[in-house]
Design goal:
By secondary structure, the chain is of the alpha+beta class. The protein has 17 helices and 27 strands. The chain binds dioxothiomolybdenum(VI) ion.
Length: about 750
């Protein structure tokens, strides 16, 4: 295990992205940029019903169209297997049914056939010419969620029902978050190559190692015959964490035709068949004493899932540890609908869950006539009362206090509509937020080379969040090698198995492995120096040596008495020393000694113009306690992006299913509204920067998802403060505010 890197806290503060020049110059190669000799194009045929079965597929006309090489259906695609249930964090996919497995259609847009042709245009034309007839049944895409099934108890302590009944002050409300669709600008894509024995799959993947495992199983080949590459991602937001059925179609077609095959989804397909955040309906009951102490908390949530797969959103993720209360129960249940299988979307569980819980806390504050910041401080837990474990590091109180200070919260007058500025009514709202801090198992390799350069590699990914930069930074800080001499290689299963780019854990997971790899490479260098002829080092014991700023020297002498590492290698005629590092994951560890999470406070200001019914989010102050921040620049960028996404969640985003046909009808970027620059408020991000060394030696917990948690509740609470209207079903519509 690597030793703790002892650095001054702010070195390299704000290093710009090392991959920035590649991206802004268009030189970064994304999945769909791969064009290979002889490559063909696949276009899926999507079901136009959401429930029923295929009666017949007539592909005669499509077969005869120009450029068409194949029309695949269940009859001729070849065998595609299911993945075995995973024992650990491997073999993950949310839609488990392989494409074309049977003739049943369970959601609109399910693939029923695929055309492969010489050009994309030919494939599109032929896909449109495939005639599919269906036995149609009425789809169930009802928004209201209810179930007779017994819900799962996620957490329980004390006796919450009677404690709620007898509580002097009560809130009992139901909160709804709609289906939301991930809309990274980069479309999902697969470029599959088959060489007669091996697959090379260029994928839009946030987790190439898992992708390799899943596709090897689906294709029925040994894992070593599948290489997965994902060098750059135009983001994913969780939608690209696990493989989707189109990946198996592309790979299968490549094998069948012995030609490279490119399959790029269209934006409308992305609303159908590559996951979404499911609709949630959450009843929250809070009971409190008149002075604001919580005596009972019940959080019962439902989410929709697809007909075949059990996707639980996990809305109670943050419920059990957010507040101190002796009595608590959190349950969750699933309701089946004719929709594609849901999946993780930025802050799964906690984000919709905290919308409900933090909205309810605001409603309780109003009933109690207590300031909402104060109510949270009053109920601050000393430990994770759900797990009965100490927090590794929790600075929620400081987040709230610093945020209140920066926001100017003490100026707030609680009466609805009482604050005015420039002729506008102001609303101010606050919410707490939190997110899981864990590590995934990770391996990395570091080379120190005779030309003074270094290379660090790991089969993790940079999904736009800054992984290339952060790994370069760690190697640079530990070795003194400048960034322009450090090569970072990611996103390829030929590299040491790295962590998923999910859960905001890629940095936290990679750090221990990279540190260990650096240390091993340095040890190897010490042995070479010890055997070499360099003055002062030859014949010295390797364990008497240290590595500082690119030089090997004796521990008891100053670094400038040492020899540069590249000189040592050159003198020995060795190209490079390599070190490998490996760290275990913490996720799912049953023997944990700490509750590990990041925390934060969100303060939002809205402006409301009743005359024109114009609502804007004007200002957000966010204070984040995410352990040590390795690089404030991309970290701040993550939180700012999450806040903007939070504006979208609060005011715009909602996937609407047509109740007659089950189709997601606003399946494009014109009708599915995401927040844009014009909607972005003034954003003030503060990091508390307390290293959490339970998570890794550098104390970095990771950012990315936490910035979205709590924002929607802070905004709807601000909307209430401005208008007197509590919106419990997102998004807030202007109609909701017209009374
Ligand atoms: Mo994130 S939803 O874990 O990519």
């Amino acid at each position: 295990m690597a030793s703790i890197l002892n650095l001054p806290p702010k070195t390299n503060a704000g290093l710009p992205r090392v991959d920035g020049p590649l991206k802004v110059s268009g030189a970064a190669i994304y999945t769909s940029d791969h064009n290979l000799p002889g490559m063909l194009y696949a276009v899926p045929v999507c079901a136009t019903i959401a429930n029923g079965s295929i009666a017949s597929i007539d592909s005669d006309r499509a077969q005869g169209m120009p450029g068409v090489k194949a029309v695949y259906t269940r009859q001729n695609i070849g065998k595609l297997f299911r993945t075995a249930p995973a024992q650990d964090f491997t073999g993950i996919l949310d839609e488990r049914r392989p494409p074309f497995e049977d003739d049943n259609v369970r959601y609109y847009g399910q693939y029923v056939a695929a055309v492969v042709a010489s050009t994309f245009e030919q494939a599109v034309a032929a896909a449109n010419a495939v005639k599919v007839t269906y036995r149609t049944e009425k789809p169930d895409v009802r928004e209201h969620l209810e179930t007779d099934e017994k819900p799962k108890v996620d957490s329980k302590r004390g006796d919450p029902e009677p404690a709620f009944q007898s509580a002097p002050v009560k809130v009992d409300e139901t909160y709804v978050t709609p289906t939301e669709t991930h809309n990274p600008i980069e479309l999902h894509a697969s470029v599959a190559v088959w060489d007669g024995q091996n697959f090379t799959l260029y994928e839009t993947s946030q987790a190439v190692v898992n992708h390799q495992d899943v596709l090897a199983q689906m294709l029925g080949v040994p894992q070593e015959n599948v290489r997965v590459i994902s060098r750059f991602l135009g983001s994913g937001f969780g939608g690209k964490l696990w493989p989707w059925t189109h990946c198996a179609i592309a790979a299968s077609a490549a094998r069948n035709l012995n030609r490279p095959v490119k399959l790029v989804l269209t934006r409308d397909m992305m609303f159908q068949s590559v996951g979404h955040r499911p609709r949630t309906q959450q009843r929250v009951r809070l009971g409190a004493t008149p002075d604001g102490k919580l005596v009972s908390l019940m959080h019962d949530s439902l989410n929709h899932t697809s007909i075949l797969d059990d996707y639980s959103e996990g809305c109670s993720e943050a419920t059990a540890y957010s507040y101190s209360t002796p009595n608590l129960r959190a349950t969750s249940g699933l309701v089946r609908r004719n929709v594609g299988t849901p999946t993780s979307m930025r802050g799964p569980g906690a984000v919709p869950g905290l919308f409900a819980l933090e909205s309810a806390m605001d409603e309780l504050a109003i009933k109690l006539n207590v300031d909402p910041v104060k109510l949270r401080l009053l109920n601050e837990p000393q430990k994770d009362e759900g797990l009965n474990l100490p927090f590794s590091s929790r600075h929620m109180v400081e987040c709230l206090n610093v945020g209140a200070e920066k926001f100017g919260w003490s100026q707030r007058t609680p009466q609805v509509g009482s604050m005015k500025k420039n002729g506008l009514t102001l609303g101010w709202g606050v919410a707490g937020c939190s997110w899981i801090a864990e590590r995934m198992g990770s391996e990395a390799s570091v080379d120190l080379r005779d030309d003074g350069t270094a290379r660090v590699s790991s089969a993790t990914q940079d999904i736009g969040t800054g992984t290339y930069t952060v790994l370069s930074q760690i190697v640079s800080e530990k070795t003194g090698i400048p960034h322009d001499k450090i090569e970072v290689v990611l996103g390829d299963t030929d590299l040491p198995a790295g962590a998923i780019s999910g859960g905001s854990w890629a940095t936290a997971s990679s750090i221990p492995a990279v540190l260990e790899a650096i240390e091993k490479a340095q040890q190897s260098l010490f042995m070479i120096a010890s055997q070499g002829k360099d003055a002062g080092l030859a014949g010295q014991k390797a364990d008497a040596m240290a590595f500082t700023n690119g030089c090997v020297h004796l521990k008891d002498k100053s670094p400038d008495t040492g020899v540069r590492f590249d000189q040592i290698l050159t003198a020995a005629n060795i190209r490079a020393v390599s070190g490998s590092g490996k760290s275990e994951g913490t996720f799912g560890n049953p023997n944990r000694k700490h509750s590990t999470h990041s925390f934060g406070a969100q303060f939002a200001e809205v402006t409301w113009q009743p005359e024109t019914a114009r609502l804007r989010v004007s200002r957000v102050v966010t204070v984040i306690d995410a352990g040590r921040i390795i690089n404030p620049k991309p970290a701040r960028n993550q939180i700012e992006g999450a806040v903007v996404m939070g504006v979208g969640m609060a005011l715009f985003e909602e996937t609407v299913y047509d109740p007659r046909f089950g189709a997601p009808i606003n399946n494009n970027l014109a009708d599915y509204i995401v927040a844009t620059n014009a909607d972005a408020p003034e954003i003030d991000v503060t990091f508390l920067d307390y290293p959490d060394t339970v998570i890794n030696p550098l104390g970095a917990r990771g950012v990315g998802e936490i910035g979205l948690a709590g924002i929607a509740a802070a905004i709807t609470s601000a909307v209430y403060h401005a208008t007197g209207i509590r919106v419990r079903e997102l998004p807030v519509r202007i109609e909701d505010l017209l009374v």
